[in-house]
What does this fold into?
Amino acid sequence: MWSYRDGQLVEVTGDAAEKLAAIDAYQADFMDFETEQTIFASGFYEFVTVSLDPGLQKAEVYRSISCGPLCGSDYLLILERAPDGEWYVSDSTHLWQS
It folds into this structure.
């Protein structure tokens, strides 16, 4: 799990409780839904690896975004590894949007 703060992507290590605490802290700091100005200011992104082929050349990844009480979307992304080793999105399916 990673957290993006102060222009840096930082890995959150530890057990599940520590990771949930980091999520709670992020939501408390950045997801203030009390005012219209902040409702779309930042979001919470979730990525889950659904499948990974044995050759490590193709993956299915579920991506969810929450940007407010009635704002969000989910996609199923197909990632493939290019000859240079970089991953790219080769296809996507839009699952829902609010």
